[in-house]
Amino acid sequence: MKKLLCILSLALTTSVAFAQDETPETTPLEITGSGDIYYKYDFAKVPNIPTSFATDQNSVSLGMLDIALKKKIKNISFVGEISFGPRGQYQSIPNGDGSSSNVDNSFHIQNLYASYAFTDKFSMTAGYMGTFIGYEVISPVANFHYSTSYLFSYGPFQNAGIKANYAITEKFGAMVGLFNDSWNTYKANPSYGLNAVGGQLSYVTDKASAYLNFMDGSVSGTIFDLTATFQLTDKFKLGLNAADFSNEGDVGYTGAALYPSVAISDSFGLGLRGEYFKFKEGSGDTGVTAFTLSGNYKINGLTIIPEFRLDSNSDEVMFVDSDLMPAKSASQVLLALVYGF
Question: Would you say domain 24-340 falls under CATH 2.60.40.1120?
Answer without folding.
Answer: no
